[in-house]
Write a structure and sequence with these properties.
Helix content is 72%, strand content 1%. The protein contains 30 helices and two strands. The longest helix is centred in the C-terminal third of the chain and has 45 residues. The radius of gyration is 28 Å and the shape is globular.
């Protein structure tokens, strides 16, 4: 017989979803907005998100207060360690060569601490945490459906791809693959739970199939090579491993069935250089195939969930459950080893050696038909320079987000990365060994706290806690070879759901009858027992401590609000100037001047103003703006190049040559600088308009 649907009364619903979890659901809405809006990458998106998260945290602490209950020491240690890392990040502004970049990076770090702190202090019930994870999976699944429909119908397909690889919705193919994989793995893990309705389990399984297929279209090599490690970690943290593995086989088989059509999209694009009719047709076929297979997974998943609901649950002893878990883990490892052997044609050692050689040397020759077959990249050199930076500045690093120009001065490639493409090296290069140690303390303490909460929970709680840790596993493992820190759509779920796992099923707030401290006051003192009277001075100390914490917390909130709000206003002015620069360039210059005055640490408004002034022929204004930009960021080759072009247009050949030589010394591979230098003393100097057109073509 099918188990009847259980109807919850109002008191049960209020216990499962108390008002204290509402801020967590509001924060979840912000994570979903980031996922749908370029991954939340751009400052004009995540800055207002940080202010919103700060307001949610303040409302939670002030409004709920005692309803939050006691916070375990392990959770406090993790949150405080991350908070210290945030403070160290802000302190790095004092020694950073580019304080504007350090301020922006520190504000992004503060955002992640706010996400972690909010999710960690909310007293999550298992039901509320399960609802959060389910809504997250369904929201990303809805984004996946929109993309599949656009592919199947040919609706502006080229806007979804970068270099022939699916980049939507984050704008970066590797980040999109990670986002879809987060939703896929969490959805598969939850679909194995008998507590969920049959239709919901089928939908979660279909989302798992959609996520894996779209990740495959992105052809992320980091995703492919780290996926086995992620799978092993997932098996380790999840409960009911056999059920999860059996559930995972369905979306995996669906993905394997479509692998030829999914990989054909990149193959016909010729490394993204040919996005004509063959590419459009291949993308349409891929979209139609993914929709059909997801529908098939939905039907099969519903039938299997219906059959699973009809039979009584199998109850195993703890010893047998552990034995099954070990057996499943062993089967996964053996299957992975067999698959790796088959994929490498029986020569795994030779394959690894060949791949390492390709990784450590930039690719040469024609691009292969699949991006998975090409391992060579600039990451080896990125990591070499990042490690050199950490060793050269071991205490505090270069300063938060100060890697880009440092790499420009020490590179062996022609690439210009802004990020280290590795979470660990990012911490070392940007904030030194002190920052790395603080983050390591946070990470270890948070994971141990989450695993402890998982161990103390019931069967459903263990499953929910394990599923909540899956985004963190993807963010950490895949992020070790990529730059995911900069995407709030990835960092937010990873750190937020980690905080939720830490705070799962905390003890209820104590009442007076359960050992709460008695109220202080003159009337109570006359009636209080002698033993309680001796504790009265301690109560007075506690009140003083509360007042101090309240005042300190208020000041911290005010400082955080100002630190976030002023740069956000500058970013808004810059965005407004960009939107009106074509129709009202003079007004755009005024907006950029306000942005520069709001954030005197950043050179971006001055650079944008200098480029705009060059474009409209106001060369004196351009020279002044570029000079101010180079004063703020002395090693920015663009500022020196722009100043040299403006000086050349004004006829100041000596000054132009000096500025162009400085730009060339920073970025010797820039063709525009070489052309400008070669023609600066001639009768036909390089016009600024021509230089701007060539620079735009390089983007």
């Amino acid at each position: 017989m099918i188990r009847p649907v259980r109807r919850f009364n109002r008191s049960e619903v209020s216990r499962a979803f108390p008002a204290s979890v509402l801020p967590g659901f509001a924060a979840l809405g912000l994570l979903i907005v980031w996922a749908a809006h370029e991954g939340g990458f751009f400052p004009d998106t995540w800055y207002w998100g940080a202010l919103t998260m700060l307001a949610l945290l303040v409302v939670t602490v002030v409004g709920l207060g005692p309803k939050l209950g006691p916070i375990p020491p392990s959770v406090r240690v993790a949150v405080v360690a991350f908070g210290l890392y945030v403070l160290w990040s802000y302190l790095s502004i004092t020694w950073a060569r580019y304080p504007g970049a350090a301020l922006e990076g520190s504000n992004r770090t503060l955002l992640y601490w706010l996400v972690l702190g909010l999710f960690a202090i909310v007293p999550w019930t298992v039901e509320a945490a399960l609802a959060v994870l389910t809504v997250f999976v369904l929201a990303v699944g809805a984004i996946a459906v929109v993309i599949m429909v656009r592919l199947a119908t040919g609706d502006h397909i080229t806007s979804l791809f970068v270099y022939g690889r699916l980049a939507s919705p984050t704008g970066y193919y590797n980040a999109s693959a990670a986002l879809f994989t987060m939703a896929a793995l969490v959805g598969i893990a939850l679909s194995a739970r008998r507590e969920l309705p049959v239709l919901l389990r089928a939908v979660l399984l279909a989302v798992g199939a959609a996520g894996l297929q779209l990740a495959l279209i992105g052809q992320s090599r980091g995703w492919l090579f780290t996926l086995p490690i992620v799978a092993v970690v997932a098996i380790a943290v999840l409960s009911d491993r056999l059920r999860v593995v059996l559930a995972a086989t369905i979306p995996m088989l669906a993905t394997l069935a479509a692998v030829h059509r999914l990989l054909a999209v990149y193959r016909v694009s010729d490394n993204g250089s040919r996005l004509g009719r063959p590419f459009t047709e291949a993308a349409k076929h891929a979209g139609q195939t993914t929709l059909a297979l997801c529908a098939a997974v939905l039907i099969v998943g519903a039938l299997l969930a219906w059959a699973d609901a009809r039979r009584p649950p199998i109850v195993l002893s703890s010893a047998r459950r552990r034995a099954v878990g070990v057996a499943v883990s062993a089967l996964v490892l053996i299957g992975g080893a067999v698959g790796a052997t088959v994929a490498t044609h029986g020569r795994p050692v030779h394959f690894v050696a060949r791949e390492w050689d390709g990784f450590s040397h930039p690719p040469t020759g024609p691009a292969p038909s699949s991006n998975f077959a090409q391992v060579g990249s600039g990451r080896y050199d990125f990591w070499r320079v990042a490690l050199d930076a950490a060793l050269a500045h071991p205490i505090g690093g270069l300063g938060q987000d100060n890697f880009a120009n440092y790499y420009m001065l020490h590179r062996r490639t022609d690439e210009q990365p802004e990020w280290t493409h590795s979470l660990e090296l990012r911490l070392l290069a940007h904030t030194g060994f002190v920052g790395f140690g603080l983050f390591a303390i946070f990470f270890a303490g948070a994971v141990l706290a989450a695993l402890g909460a998982r161990r103390r929970a019931g069967p459903l709680g263990r499953a929910v806690a394990g599923a909540a840790l899956l985004p963190l596993a993807i963010w950490t493992i895949h992020g070790s070879v990529d730059w995911f820190w900069e995407f709030p759509a990835l960092s937010g779920p990873a750190l937020g759901f980690l905080g939720m796992a830490m705070g799962l099923e905390r003890p209820e707030p104590a009442t007076r009858g359960q050992g709460a401290a008695p109220p202080a006051g003159r009337a109570w003192r006359r009636r209080a027992p002698r033993a309680w009277r001796r504790r009265a001075p301690r109560a007075r100390t506690s009140r003083a401590r509360i007042v101090a914490l309240t005042v300190g917390g208020g000041l911290a909130v005010a400082v955080a609000a100002v630190t976030l709000a002023i740069p956000y206003l500058a970013v808004r002015e810059t965005s407004q100037a960009s939107s009106i620069s074509g129709g009202d360039p003079v007004g755009a210059l005024h907006d950029l001047a306000r942005a520069a005055s709001l954030n005197p640490l950043s050179a971006d408004p001055e650079l944008d103003a200098g480029v705009l002034a060059l474009r409209i022929g106001r060369y004196a204004d351009a020279e002044q703006r570029f000079r101010q930009a180079s004063a703020r960021e002395p090693d920015d080759w663009e500022a020196w190049l722009g100043e040299g072009l403006a000086a050349s247009e004004l006829g100041a050949r000596a000054g132009a040559r000096h500025d162009l030589l400085v730009s060339h010394s920073i970025n010797a591979l820039q063709r525009v600088t070489k052309q400008a230098l070669a023609r600066v003393g001639s009768h036909t100097p390089l016009p600024a308009a021509e230089a701007l057109r060539e620079l735009a073509a390089q983007l």
